[in-house]
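Forwarding the complex inputs:
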Amino acid sequence: MAATSPAGPAPAEGLVIATVRFGTVEQVVVAPSALFSFPEALPGLPDSHRYVLIGDQNSAPLFWLQSLEDQAACLPVVESASLAVAGYAEQVSQSLGAAPDARVFVVARFDPEANSFVVNLLAPVILDRRAGTGKQIVLDGQGYALRQEVRWDATARNFVVPC
Amino acid sequence: MGRDGPELRRAMLVLSRKTGQGIRIGDAIRIMVVAVDGQFVRLGIEAPASSKILREELWHSIAQDNQAAAGAVSATAFAQVLRGSAPTEAEREAEG
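Prediction (whole assembly, two chains):
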């Protein structure tokens, strides 16, 4: 997936958007396929219904959901495939029903003081590539934490839940 | 924000219902009072599968978490750690 393009003139089909993923405003070029509409806004961010997924092989598994309506709203997310949480992918697919083109992300935060990551396993964000839509679902009553501390395993390149 | 408590309450329609009575919201959503026991009210809800039904406090926790993540200024450090170029313990101590 080439969400960002190398320096140079923007390809005809590329969209230039502003993002604050690193704290300052930065222009990036994204493919139209990186655009996702959220018919139902994410809880807490009621004014944003259009997001762009920023990130590529270099940033993976870290990506950003940058709101196009609210420049200050930029959610760091990690792809669920990078979570070493037994049965998680299966639970999400079960809750989704049939969504073959869906990519599953969890909202993530990094605490530099504690050098720890916190991911929201309770409410994953689902992006449907075919429909170009996104939503945040809730895996209620299945024991997943809203704030799950995880450790980054740099060798396996995945997030591990500490014992 | 438009979704905080006080604003909700200002616009809130309040109805009295007995056990076994219900409310319809539009033509697709039906809420029934199943039982009342002291402070506890058991509600039955029929709604399209596409409607997200959440306890208010759970919705609120998720909203707070989304806002905290969206406003975090630590994305640079986050990306560095994942790239494996995180400062080591020694570097952190030297820095602080």
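The first helix of chain B runs from residue 5 to 10.
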